[in-house]
Protein: ABC transporter ATP-binding protein/permease
Amino acid sequence: MIKTLGKQIKEFKADSIKTPLFMVLEVLMETVIPLLMASIIDDGVEAGNMRHIYQVGGVMAAAAAVGLFAGIMGGKYGARASAGFARNLREAMYANIQTFAFSNIDKYSTAGLVTRMTTDVTNLQNAYQMLLRMCFRAPSSMICAMAMAFFINARIASIYLAAVVFLGALLLLIMRFAMKYFTEAFQKYDDMNASVQENVSAQRVVKAYVREEYEIEKFHKASGNIYRMFKKAESILTCNAPLMQFTVYSCILLISWLGAKMIVGSTLSTGSLMSLLSYCMNILMSLMMLSMVFAMITMSMASARRICQVLEEKADLTNPEHPDFDVPDGSIRFEDVTFRYNQASESPVLSHVSFEIKSGETIGILGGTGSSKTSLVNLISRLYDVSEGAVYVGGKDVRSYDLETLRNEVAVVLQKNVLFRGTILENLRWGDENATEEECRQACRLACADEFIEKLPDGYNTYIEQGGSNVSGGQKQRLCIARALLKKPKILILDDSTSAVDTATDSRIRRAFATQIPDTTKLIIAQRISSVQNADRIIVLNNGQVDAIGTHETLLASNTIYKEVYEAQTSGSGDFDEKGGDEA
Structure:
């Protein structure tokens, strides 16, 4: 874990070294000042030597100035190092998440990843700053003060030693109990963030079903769990202050009593007693600082483990040792493919699937809910790897390709359409960041999106809200299709991506595909037969297996599942809205 986190210090190593050095310099100045004060009292005030007072006072002022400068510089470099460390952690986590396969992402909740990149990183940032400053300052101050105390009077210094052992043992005991609750508390943050995220993203549903009270209660419960965990942890940590005060006052009383006796017996000077009392405060304040460091480290240990989980997660899908960077064409072949999301699962999602698609063909994929249509096409762009068998694109196993090369040649319009904040043009250029405006317009014409875009006040510069909340479902689907077309892919997969457009528009989109991109292999997953009946062939899936492959006419005559679906969809009034109109 330390090695993983240490890699993220990177360009802030110099700041991380300068901070403790300045802290040590500040401690040395603080250690010298009580000695100088003792000299002023013993050799200046009591001896009536004003010259000595001025000389030593000047040195003391210089030492204080140096200590002040060291403290300021230590704070400056410590802040820069800790903030930079936090920035690098966030960037490293985000970069690693981008390499994750779907199977890796499935291990984490969205809320959990957000918590790791915000709350957990902030905890580590604070802990690192305290580590650089207090964790070097406190031990240095304690060691120097202890050494000077023994130098002045070993008998009185023994009181400090006993206090340090006593406090150190109790602080370790407190930390041990507190850490358990902090670990549980940070796990509860995921539940609370998940509640917030779910509520905000589904706000329309919440209001439509008048479930505000239920959502408030759910959040109250999640927030209450965090409150209880932190209350228990903080209740234990609050023992630090009374223990520290008890030890400080006990030491002061013992030193004052023993020191007074020694002064009366002429074995200790007044100035030395004042120095010993100053060193007493230095030692005990150092212990207090160390207890704060331990508390912060205790809190951050749970965060550190959660961050390292993400940083150390290895992508399940990686490039081969010598990847292929050329996809010859859009032909596809499934060869006895079996697929499981969980390799330990007994029942596969896809079982012994075999078929071949020629480059440029239009293939329809039909099947009931849960028949694994989406799982099938996910294997083509290698979003998942097969459990058994092989998938070939362009005559080569997809596992032999460079991942980026393969995915650039396979455009997927997903079942759940996603648009990002920005203009329509900016969203379209996700398909090709260098696409001209004319190329974007042409893609929109093919996807039948131009007709509604041109009616918007700002046209292609219309701003899209997060998730595309200010456009209808059908409009969102057509923009996503246009975005995919801009990739100029060899394979285009439409995963039920015209379900929210009317049948007339759906028909125009399919005709445009047939005439404008004839060399692109097109796979159309659909629930309605009208979307796939003109395809070159149709694959009927049932329970993760290929039930039949053929043309519309062939399947209608020979396949029971296809015939039942066709009759169910045509026996009534036909498909919705034959003449047009978007579904809002």
User: Anything to note?
Assistant: DSSP finds 19 helices and twelve strands in the chain.
